[in-house]
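Our example pasted here:


***
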Amino acid sequence: MICSSYPTSDLFTRAGWADFTNGFWLGGTGGAVFAWLLIGTLHLDILLPLVRQYHLFGA
């Protein structure tokens, strides 16, 4: 793989920019869904007291 400090000319076309920005949309949506699943499945009422107790011991 050859790295260049200049972007390819495809990036400056409408189709190239659309392909580039699709990655941001996919990554952002995937991250939001993953966070939603984590929050929905974690039992924070059980975990938070354990974290507080661990923190009070100076760890």
